[in-house]
Amino acid sequence: MTFAEVVQSHFPGAAPLEPYIRRVAVTLIQDHGFAPANTLACVGVCRDELCRSLTDEVEAMWGGSFDFSSLGGILSLGKTGFAAAYSHAPVVHGRRRYVFFLFAHIGISAQGELGLTRRPGHDEPSAACGALVALLEDLRSGRKSTALEWEDPEQSLLKLRMKRMRDLDEQPDLMSLTKAAHRATVEDLRLLMANSLNRQNEDYAVIAGIEIHGPDGNNLIWTGESYVVVEGRRSEIWF
Known about the structure:
single chain; two-stranded antiparallel sheet; 7 helices; 23% strand; globular
């Protein structure tokens, strides 16, 4: 299969990164009352430098961002980190507003190979997401991890978090593992918000999905769970 065929099969509706982030901003600003002056953008992506393109686009539209990033894109900041983000949001007319951008990522080669992308300055393709590829190798080898490893904290947290995904097979492939990482971030954000946000005084949007790194630096976005909550009322949003 080619890159385009794999995307169509696994990520129908995926759109180019830059116009996608602009459409998100236009929708939130025009339809839901969010704006750079009254909103804190929070970005949770993998530490991979390839994911910086998404963060850059978000910051170009929203003016800076609070960094939620960790290997694999999972949320390892915990309640203390989330409380910091909560306190940093501007207060306008007694309300705080947040936009949470949460994205796992995967490389797909021109030949449709999963987990591979060609990076600038490299003659050969390399892994993306490297952390998820490494986790997949561990699972296939039978190596087990049951505790936090202080010499490798983020990767061990990623392993432990994926073990808690009840809908994930014991021997997943990279596609199912990537989509599980996406679902895990949405679940964990929901838990963090339940313990922190005051629904009477805060509005927020969750924009979650998977970033796809294709040939020639072609980055696409597949939208997973995305919605907005304004004055306690939730609405699904589509881009």
